[in-house]
Amino acid sequence: MSWWDNARLLAFATWPASALILWVTLCRLNAMGKGVLFRVTLEYSIYAAIAVAVPLAPLIDEWPGLVMVLVQYAIGIILLCQWKAWEHDRPPVEATGPMPLE
Amino acid sequence: MNSSPVTDAVGLGIFLAGLVYAPAVAAVVGPYVVIILAAVIGASFAVKRREKTTRFAAAWYFFRVAGLAVLGTVSLASWASSYYSGWTERALITPVALLIGSIGDDYPALAKWFMAKFLASIDLFRGGSKP
Question: I want to staple B89 with a disulfide (CB 3.0 to 4.6 A). Which of A32, A38, B12, B81 is the partner?
Answer without folding.
Answer: B81
